[in-house]
Structure formats: structure tokens, C-alpha cells
């Protein structure tokens, strides 16, 4: 399975950066886009740089309703109307109506398998509702987060149902739950992670700097 950061605050040469996050999951048989960043132009540009057409994407998973994670959705839907879009059921009626008028909307409340060996945690959190993705591999479970607003404890508890957690990719916001990261093989923290330097210092062997255009094979 191949994970590629499509949208992030940082970028490698040729790719564009912007505030937000998006990650492409390529299983070899299908492509799933987790979050869509803030700006549709940047998102489409970076997909072109990866030689990926929006028409190749079958599913879009939105972690939460903040614009830096769903702002590029319109551009994806303009290019590919035959999409399944997975959102936490807590999304506003307005947003759900807008999405359902242009794609197949799937509301998520509980942990759900959306593709063989790929699960959403279900809706987590109190003030800000958010879902993360869980990828079941022979090496363990990999977690993809948008901002991890519900906290790493909640996310890791859901992930551990499917096996030992091997890695995490995405935004960790201001999390200081450092002990939950100590046994991970991969900590690919990006976007809103405010304690990146501390995490890198604590776990130099597993920490990885990410940005738009960076790929990870798991």
C-alpha cells in the first residue's frame, strides 16, 4: 500500500504547499483520498504532479468540517462526479445537502470498513467531531489523521481493535500525548502538528518529516 501526501503546509520540489492536509491511499486496486486541503487549485496541481487523475479516485473521506480539510472537495467533484464521500454524521445539514447533490454521501457514526482492510474510526470527539482512517497491514495498523482533535488516546484505542499500531501519518495538532508514540515504527507528523520538534527529538528513529509530494510505502 502506498500513501502520498497531496496537500500539506510543506512541499517538496515542484509541489505546492498550503495550510491544510490531504493524503492519497493507493491499494494497488483503488485510490482513496483522505481530506482535500484548503485550495482546490493546489490539490489538483499536486495530483497532476503525481500523474493521478481525479477520475482514478473512487472514494473521498473527510476527517472533519474545517475548511483546510474539505476546501478542495468542489474541485474534485467537478472533475469526478462518480465519487463516494464519507463524512462524520455531525456535518451540518447544509454541507451534507451540498455534497449529496453532487456525489454519493455516506454518513459515518460508528467504526466502518470502507474498503478491504481500511476502516474509519467512526465519529470521535466532543466539541469537534472527527474521524481518522485505519489501515490494516501485515506490519500492523497505520493511522491517518486530519488534525487529531479528539485526542490520540481516543484514536489509538479505536485503532488497537484491529491490531498493534505501527505508525501514524497526518496532523497531531497540539497533542502532548508523547507516550502513545513511543512504540511506533513511523511518526509522519505534518500540517497542524505544533510539537513536531519535540516529537522528532523524542523519537528520531521513527519520526519522518512530510510535505506535499512525499510518499510512504507501508
Describe the structure.
With 218 residues, the protein is α/β, with parallel strands linked by helices. It has 6 helices and 13 strands. It has one domain: Ribonuclease Z/Hydroxyacylglutathione hydrolase-like (Metallo-beta-lactamase, Chain A), CATH 3.60.15. 21% of the residues lie in helices and 29% in strands. Strands 6-5-4-3-2-1-13 form a 7-stranded mixed beta sheet. Strands 7-8-9-10-11-12 form a 6-stranded mixed beta sheet. 47% of the residues are buried.
Topology:
Layout: E1 2-7, E2 22-26, E3 31-34, H1 40-49, E4 57-61, H2 67-70, H3 73-79, E5 84-88, H4 93-100, E6 104-108, E7 112-115, E8 118-120, E9 133-137, E10 140-145, H5 152-160, E11 165-171, E12 186-190, H6 196-202, E13 215-217
Parallel strand pairs: 3-4, 4-5, 5-6, 10-11, 11-12
Antiparallel strand pairs: 1-2, 1-13, 2-3, 7-8, 8-9, 9-10
Helix pairs in contact: 1-3
The CATH architecture term is 4-Layer Sandwich
Rg value: 16 Å
Unreliable sequence segments: none
Whole-number mean pLDDT: 97
The amount of helix comes to 10-25%
Number of helices: 6
Stated plainly, the CATH topology is called: Metallo-beta-lactamase, Chain A
InterPro entries: DHPS-like_MBL-fold (IPR041712), Metallo-B-lactamas (IPR001279), Metallo-beta-lactamase_dom (IPR052926), RibonucZ/Hydroxyglut_hydro (IPR036866)
Pfam family, one: Lactamase_B
Domain Metallo-beta-lactamase: 19-191
GO molecular function: transferase activity
Amino acid at each position: 500500500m502506498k500513501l502520498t501526501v497531496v496537500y500539506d503546509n510543506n512541499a517538496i520540489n515542484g509541489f505546492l504547499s498550503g495550510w491544510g492536509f490531504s493524503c492519497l491511499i493507493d491499494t494497488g486496486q483503488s485510490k482513496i483520498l483522505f481530506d482535500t486541503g484548503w485550495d482546490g487549485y493546489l490539490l489538483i496541481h499536486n495530483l497532476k504532479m503525481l500523474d493521478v487523475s481525479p477520475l482514478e479516485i473512487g472514494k473521498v473521506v473527510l476527517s472533519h468540517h474545517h475548511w483546510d480539510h474539505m476546501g478542495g472537495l468542489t474541485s474534485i467533484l467537478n472533475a469526478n462526479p462518480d465519487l463516494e464521500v464519507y463524512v462524520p454524521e455531525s456535518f451540518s445539514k447544509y454541507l451534507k445537502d451540498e455534497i449529496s447533490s453532487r456525489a454519493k454521501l455516506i454518513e459515518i457514526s460508528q467504526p466502518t470498513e470502507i474498503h478491504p482492510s481500511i476502516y474509519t474510526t467512526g465519529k470521535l470527539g466532543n466539541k469537534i467531531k472527527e474521524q481518522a482512517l485505519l489501515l490494516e497491514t501485515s506490519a500492523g495498523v497505520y493511522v491517518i489523521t486530519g488534525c487529531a482533535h479528539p485526542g490520540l488516546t481516543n484514536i489509538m484505542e479505536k485503532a488497537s481493535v484491529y491490531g498493534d499500531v505501527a505508525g501514524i501519518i497526518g496532523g497531531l495538532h497540539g497533542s502532548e500525548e508523547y507516550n502513545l508514540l513511543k512504540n511506533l515504527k513511523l511518526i509522519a507528523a505534518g500540517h497542524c502538528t505544533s510539537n513536531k520538534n519535540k516529537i522528532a527529538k523524542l523519537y528520531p528513529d521513527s519520526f519522518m518529516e512530510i510535505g506535499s509530494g512525499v510518499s510512504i510505502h507501508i
